[in-house]
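Cross-posted from the bioinformatics board.
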Amino acid sequence: MDKFANVGWPEMLLMALIGFVLVFVVLVLLIYIMKAMGWVFTRQKKAAKVAEKGAAADVHDAISDQEIAAAIITALKLYKSNLHDRESEMLTINRITRAYSPWNSKIHGLTQVPERK
Amino acid sequence: MITLLQSDNFILDSLVKFVQMSGFMAFFADGGWKFIIMIAIACLLLYLAIKKQFEPLLLLPIAFGMLLTNLPGAGMFHSEFFAGGHVDWAQFAAGKAGLLDVLYLGVKLGVYPCLIFVGVGAMTDFGPLIANPKSFLLGAAAQLGIFATFIGAYALGFEPNQCGSIGIIGGADGPTSIFLTAKLAPELLGPIAIAAYSYMALVPVIQPPIMRALTTEKERKIKMSQLRQVSKTEKILFPIIITVIISLFLPDAAPLVGCLMLGNLMKECGVVDRLSKTVQNELMNIVVIFLGISVGATATADSFLNTQTLFILCLGILAFSGGTAGGVLLAKVMNLFAKEGNKINPLIGSAGVSAVPMAARVSQVEGQKADPSNFLLMHAMGPNVAGVVGSAVAAGILLAFFG
């Protein structure tokens, strides 16, 4: 243990202090790097969102003119009203067959009318 | 007749020799009581691992390794083969090494802790830390326990290199403690590993009183704002950047940090799922068995039954308490400069002592005791994983000083 022969209280205290400060220095450096990385990525995200919003706003602006909108709506209305209704010509009534059951049979449930002879 | 007598003598001699060679006789030899005490301690640790479930995955193999090494006559571990910080390869070549000697090579050469760190990295989500990099500060402050204990150990008469190994218990990180101790003070490996893992299991007992003592009810009720979403690219870049920066600053920390980040990169990149799953499960489990048994094997009667072990156990408590206090206090200081709405709940500061994810869970539980609608777990995971990085950095610094 000759290696530490010259190490006393002042050196130990100093090493503890330097060690603790060094941990902070390294981790603070990492904070800034992470913040920079976060800033770049959040900026990219924001830019993408703004671009998305911008595209939506352009479409909205194009039809913001009330007269144009009214003209489009009228044209659509006229076009649709000129169209005749056309049936699909498909029969949707299907014959449903059920298995016979005397439980719901009316013939057994009702009093039969007496036969006149 | 003479032949028969001679034969009787031979059988008698053989029987006497057999009895003398048995481990039972060693109990009655000079200092044999130490073996009995060590076996009792090993059984106590086995009880704690199995019945009380104190970090059973590690404590069980450690305790069993301790049991094996203290069985007199078994010769499974020879600490003299590793005396003076060197490996006596001649003994290995001569075939005199026992099973535990061979397994211990992985500790001595610093292989097991690094392999475990690969697995830890693959199981860790650094997302909360990337979302809130300020957590690094809490992870750094929690290393106060390491350096306070370092001074405390020196006051108790330990050598400077041993002080570094004892101090690292405050990092609350088993593999880091073992890695550093195997390099700086291998003679203390047994007590330090047992102290580190035992206190890690006791985090829910040690931390809450300190957390409550250092915070007000109002502070414990602070609700933190939602963390931002972290993109996959950020998560992939993080391990690469951390490895490069820390390894350039502290080359001694490169094995630990590099392995931790390799595991994390495997997890985050999403293209090596098979490797990621292997390091998280099979590799991790195999190495944990080897590490536990061989670390336990170092706890021989001569190295364990002395006042140093008692001091180490006491200093371990100081280390954990100091780390907890450091994190909580720095969070309070950060709040002095934080705007309203950006305040930090000081309870998450205690999670900076690594012990992933137990310390973060303690923050969550304490936070919910103050306000059941407060969820601190994800916020506490930031300082928690920052603590892992912080303790690896601290280990690198101590290794640079005393290695």
